[in-house]
Amino acid sequence: MTAATHSSLFPQDPDGSQFVAPPRDADAVLDGLDPEQREVATALHGPVCVLAGAGTGKTRAITHRIAYGVRAGILQPASVLAVTFTNRAAGEMRGRLRQLGAGGVQARTFHSAALRQLQYFWPKVVGGELPRLLERKVQLVAESAARCRIRLDRNELRDVTGEIEWAKVTQTVPADYPAAVAKSHRDAPRDPAEIGQIYAMYEQLKRDRSVIDFEDVLLLTVGILQDRHDIADQIRGQYQHFVVDEYQDVSPLQQRLLELWMGDRENICVVGDASQTIYSFTGATPDHLLNFRTRHPSATMVKLVRDYRSTPQVVHLANGLLNQARGRAAEHRLELISQRDAGPEPVYTEYADEPAEAEGTARRIRDLVAAGVPAGEIAVLYRINAQSEVYEQALADAGVPYQLRGAERFFERQEVREAGAALRGAARFGGNDSLLDDVVDLPSQVRAVLSTKGWTTEPPTGSGAVRDRWESLAALVRLAEDFVRARPEATLGDLVTELDERAAAQHAPTVQGVTLASLHAAKGLEWDAVFLVGLTEGMMPITYAKTDEQVEEERRLLYVGVTRARLHISLSWALSRAPGGRASRRPTRFLSGLRPGSSAPGTRGAGAAAGGAAERGGRRKRRGPVLCRVCGTTLTDAGEMKLMRCEGCPSDMDEGLYERLREWRSDQAKQLGQPAYCVFTDKTLMAIAESVPGDDGELSRISGVGGRKLERFGADVLAICAGEELAGEDDES
After folding, report:
1. Is residue 55 marked as binding?
2. pLDDT tens across 488-524, in order?
3. Residue 317 pLDDT > 90
4. Which residues pair with 269 in a beta bridge?
5. Residue 461 pLDDT grade (very low, low, confident, very high; cuts 50, 70, 90)
6. In this structure, are 401 and 516 located in the same domain?
7. DSSP 8-state code for residue 110
8. How would you label 135-174 residue by residue, b for 16+ Cβ within 10 Å and e otherwise?
């Protein structure tokens, strides 16, 4: 078997691409490459690791590398397999390679390459045709849940399906799923034991019906290559050289497949950037990229840091974000160097409320379009899709065309349509609806109606489809609150009319328009002007990012957003949700020390007084992160921070001490004529009873014990903790 026998081993590409005879001058391929890109292109032997920052021309470098090897006669086109993560990226790579005279090279996604191999070898290994590929697994997951007598709504179904996919790419079997969730600190959408049951039933039904899913394509290919050394040798004889793009996004399963493709050879080139790892919730991990040099000690390492996309001003902001990062990925961050002429400075804007932020953003976009920036070269990026509605409305009101990427328009979403129908029915027949008997004001009516559709006063934990649905419904509740504030006499019927008018105004077809997208959906894209909006604590980082690594991934997500901009970058936040609301929000911690008037994290300076809500919030010295004293996780919930442990971690509270503290607190409250919680809250007393401080320093580190309370109550509390009797206690007994 030689590389030249490719056509007899695997089917031809569907597009029929053939190897184009290379031009005589291989060096011509190197023209126009910068020194680092040239180093990548000429490193054709042994393992190569390319750390490529945003906008540094990584695709150019690796396609020229392959083409140079082909033209120089070092690589046979059919012996090269280039893998990436999306069909779009693979198609772009194939197109560039054809232009460079290397059209016979295979450029595919992991799944596409594995599926072709599986289809080819299945008859030989198992016999018969490959089982039918399940295009959508949701229906089978739903049936599996029903057989387990577990009821899932549409959004829970999507989330559980995502959990099954995560389990499979991390090579976790159903029985091990609950333990894997606990170990990874993953927020499961349901009880992990229930999901494990559904997962097991799902696998059983697939076997019974002889179908496989997309993850099985990788798993079965891995199984065949592990069990059949003759087939593994055949594939290794075919593919001599591997290139992997976006290597920071590989899952453990994809890494295992890659290792089996390679065998004991080391002709591999990987390209990635740990600072752009934003898909860990799907199983992606940068560990394989960061450990590459450990696995391949002889590897050639090349860093691409010349940024050809963004101006020095945008690059400076991006570098500043990463300079504050922590963790292993941050240790390998790349300091980008812009190759473009200077441009405008980043614009930081603080708004009073969300509608003002959306309207201000729309005005600035309208001005840019008027100044000659094409609408298609402008993007508004936000953390979650539910944030889009207010920007859809503001752009529509400003007469600016827009298009949504990666999500339906707000009023076209299933949950919003269902909610609209329910509100319309309540407006028409509300007099006969017992649901509305005890509510009088418009927002309460809306909450009551939407509670039947999944809205609750508290958001569901974690991310996923259930959370997305809740955010959409919560946006309707907020819209009702804003509407009645502007029109106090408005009825439910008036609100329904308003919703219909908004929906109609935003349904106008657009061809060339401003892109509205989530930060995740923006990965791999770029625009002349980018508006990053809603940058407040609780949204960036998102409220359910609790561990250090989850918070750092949120920082990387913002970094990805910043590096999408070529020329104009605007960052904004609103101090309150609605007009006239309490200005209690703070701009994201990730901009501290970067935006004008703010101090770097953990410092105080002259800028603190003028640096916005985050810096105006208090005069006390800012503490570092509060860690759970049981498991070490960073705590963000106020109650957990008081206890200095996760709610689910075991408590070692001294019950007798807790009761003595409560009795003492009751006496103090009576003497002061104040409620007991004004002395210390229950959570603070629990934290004291759990940690049993021995001195002022230990007591002061407990959340809820400030300097004033330490001075006033510290001696008593420490005496009680030491088991001493307080003066006057004997007289009362």
Report:
1. yes
2. 888 888 888 878 776 765 544 444 689 999 999 898 8
3. yes
4. 48, 243
5. low
6. yes
7. H
8. eebeebbbebbeebebebeebbbbbbbbbbbbbbbbbbeb
The most confident of the ranges 70-74, 266-270, 405-409 is 266-270
Distance CA(207)–CA(703), nearest Å, equals 54
The Cα–Cα gap between 88 and 325 comes to 31
pLDDT in tens, 655-693: 788 889 989 898 888 888 777 777 888 778 888 888 888
- Helix H, strand E, coil C: the string for 205-220 is HHHHHCEECHHHHHHH
**Residue 140 falls within a domain, yes or no?**
yes
Any known ligand binding at 168?
A: no
Residues 6+ apart with CB under 8 A from 579: 352, 353, 355, 356, 482, 485
The answer to whether 59 is a known ligand-binding residue is yes
- 503 in a known ligand binding site: no
- In 3-state terms, what secondary structure has residue 382? strand
**Could you tell me the pTM of the whole model?**
0.66
From CA 438, how far away is CA 461, in angstroms rounded? Answer: 29
> 702-723: per-residue pLDDT in tens?
877 877 788 889 999 999 988 8
Q: To 5 degrees, how large is the angle CA 133–CA 134–CA 138?
A: 165
Is 95 a member of any domain?
A: yes
The DSSP code for 627 is B
Q: 260 and 112: one domain?
A: yes
Largest CA distance in the chain: 105
DSSP H or E segment with residue 516: strand 514-518
Does pLDDT of 643 surpass 70?
no
* Owning domain of residue 463: 410-496
**Mean of pLDDT values over 459-481:** 74
* Per-residue pLDDT, 193: 93
pLDDT at 438: 63
Cα 517 versus chain centre, distance: 13
Known binding residue 58? Answer is yes
591 neighbors 535 (Cβ within 8 angstroms)? yes
CA distances to 506, 532, 566 from 516, rounded to whole Å, are: 13, 10, 17
Residues 482, 375, single domain; the answer is no
* Total of domains in the chain: 5
Residue 56 marked as a ligand binder: yes
φ, ψ of residue 263 in degrees (nearest 5): 70, -140
Q: Pull the structure tokens for residue 716.
A: 């008593």
Residue 45 CB neighbours (<10 A): 12
Tell whether residue 277 is among the known ligand binding residues.
no
**pLDDT at position 340, please?**
93
The dihedral over CA atoms of 364, 368, 371, 375, expressed in degrees to the nearest 10, equals -140
The answer to whether residue 153 sits within a structural domain is yes
- Let me know whether 358 and 234 are in one domain: no
pLDDT in tens, 136-183: 888 899 999 999 999 888 778 888 998 999 999 898 999 999 999 888
Token readout for 474 is 């919560």
- Burial of residue 645 (CB within 10 Å: 0-12, 13-18, 19+) is buried
From 409, 353, 358, select the one nearest 583 (Cα to Cα): 353
